[in-house]
Design a protein that fits this description.
Strand content: 5-15%
Mean pLDDT: 83
Radius of gyration: 18 Å
CATH superfamily: SGNH hydrolase
Protein name: SGNH/GDSL hydrolase family protein
CATH class: Alpha Beta
Low-confidence stretches: 92-111
GO molecular function, one term: hydrolase activity
Helix content: 25-40%
Keywords: Hydrolase
Distance between the termini: 13 Å
Strand order of the largest sheet: 2-1-3-4-5
CATH topology: Rossmann fold
Largest sheet: 5 strands, parallel
Number of helices: 8
CATH architecture: 3-Layer(aba) Sandwich
Number of strands: 5
Number of domains: 1
Length: 252
């Protein structure tokens, strides 16, 4: 069984310690326990546009299962909150090919009191984003709608073997709200009618117990979060109505 998975650095288990595996590893382990031989091809991209470009260069018809994790960069981008106001994603850097480091190699950050001016600025930015999203004019959200439409158009001929993962939650309020905006795009009825959509919010809660702590990347899942997603994703895979490949596992 040949599987293609494209997502953000969660795919490679970013920040996990030695011996810990990503949600992809847990998912593959579950399939392997059914007796199936599995090969995995994985890519890390930071935007849906980059995902589409990568997929357009791959022989999608040769894979038995295609999984797309709408990760960091679906709405919020690794370049920071400022990128939310940028319409053209080609102007912000991509995280493709970034080295996946173990947690003990990541730099720690010293927690410092946040000044009133900074808190006020962040609150004002948050309110501005909410207002623009309500009016339908938030640039990044507008761009992501088009990116998702283009990606789904590319995947439509293969929809019987595609699983889409909605953006993982985030423990920080502003980023959590942005992920929710991205999730809403994936959970639209027209998308779910054509594709199997795994709702990450149904598995992971935006609480610290599911995320890395003590690093500069607190928005990434820890080992517990990865295992929960991997196991739930396998159960979803077995029950997904649009997936054809599962029948061979069920017969075995």
């Amino acid at each position: 069984m040949k599987i293609l998975i494209i997502g953000d650095r969660h795919v490679g288990g970013y920040g996990l310690s030695a011996g810990q595996i990503s949600f992809v590893g847990h998912f593959i382990r579950q399939i392997s326990q059914t007796g199936r031989a599995v090969s995995v091809e994985a890519y890390a991209q930071s935007t849906l546009a980059a995902v589409q470009m990568t997929m357009s260069q791959l022989p999608l018809e040769h894979y038995d299962l295609i999984m797309v994790q709408a990760g960091q960069g679906c709405v919020d981008h690794p370049a920071g909150l400022e990128s939310v106001f940028v319409r053209d994603t080609s102007r912000v850097p991509d995280v493709s090919g970034d080295l996946v480091l173990p947690d003990w190699l990541l730099p720690t950050i010293e927690k410092k009191p946040v000044g009133l001016i900074k808190r006020t600025a962040e609150a004002g930015q948050f309110l501005l984003m909410q207002g623009m999203a309500t009016l339908g004019v938030l640039p990044r959200l507008f761009t992501v709608r088009h990116e998702l439409t283009d990606l789904l158009t590319l995947l439509k001929p293969y929809r019987h073997k595609v699983i889409l993962l909605s953006p993982f939650p985030h423990p920080q309020p502003v980023y959590r709200w942005l992920r929710q905006q991205g999730r809403a795009l994936f959970m639209r009825s027209d998308v779910r009618q054509s594709f199997s959509v795994f709702d990450s919010d149904a598995v992971i809660q935006p609480r610290e117990e599911y995320f890395l702590t003590g690093t500069t990347n607190t928005g990434y899942l820890n080992a517990v979060g990865h295992e929960l997603v991997g196991r739930a994703l396998f159960d979803f895979y077995l029950a997904a109505p649009t997936i054809v490949a599962i029948h061979t596992i069920r017969r075995s």
